[in-house]
Design brief:
alpha/beta; 6 helices; 23% strand
Length: 198
């Protein structure tokens, strides 16, 4: 079970996520309570070992802006969230980084349809922290895809059972306030996700 912890902004939480066994760590470089600057993302990414994917999260920015911020932060993956056209992914392909497409369940759910490497299927209202009908996507997404939206340590096992994803992605579900992560919740989430996959 691939586990991504997103929206990190503090060194201690980055270190906790790595120690807990997260496979990917996301830094939000777009409008959000979790937003960090490319410079701050670079400082945090420097704490992450090579085997853990560092992901820059964008929503609505044009490819030139995404490219500049990602290179400044020194990240290993780019996540485009929402209704980005295929051309945006094509424009970033030459970076040689992992491309991630994050969409709701109404979009094309074939991983690779936009030349992305990973697909995230998120809630109808991304970032809301609200659970949604995870079972509705079971059997629909193809390839390497992560379930997101409303996940937390208490419900991630249920969500995995319902949707059968390749991985899971969490942000607000490991927070005590918007943008404020909790190390105990991060550890609990990774453990619960891994336990459910056994």
């Amino acid at each position: 079970m691939h586990v991504k912890i997103c929206g990190l902004s503090e060194p201690g939480h980055v270190e906790t996520a790595v120690e807990a066994g997260a496979d990917a760590i996301g830094f939000v470089l777009t409008r959000s309570p979790r937003r960090v600057t490319p410079e701050r993302a670079a400082e945090l990414a420097a704490l992450v070992p090579d085997h853990v994917l560092t992901v820059g999260v964008f929503r609505g920015e044009d490819p030139a802006e995404v490219r500049a911020a990602t290179l400044a932060a020194g990240l290993r993956a780019v996540q485009l969230h929402g209704h980005h056209p295929h051309a945006d992914f094509t424009a970033l392909k030459d970076l040689g980084l992992t491309l991630v497409r994050a969409v709701d369940a109404e979009a094309d759910l074939r991983c690779g349809a936009y030349d992305e490497d990973l697909l995230i299927v998120d809630a109808p209202r991304p970032g809301s922290g609200e659970p949604w009908d995870w079972a509705a996507v079971r059997g629909r997404p193809s390839g390497r895809w992560l379930l997101a939206g409303g996940l937390d340590p208490a419900n991630v096992a249920t969500a995995i059972e319902a949707a059968r994803p390749w991985g899971v992605d969490v942000s607000s579900g490991v927070e005590v306030a918007p943008g404020v992560k909790d190390s105990g919740l991060i550890r609990a989430f990774v453990a619960a996700a891994r336990g459910a996959a056994r």
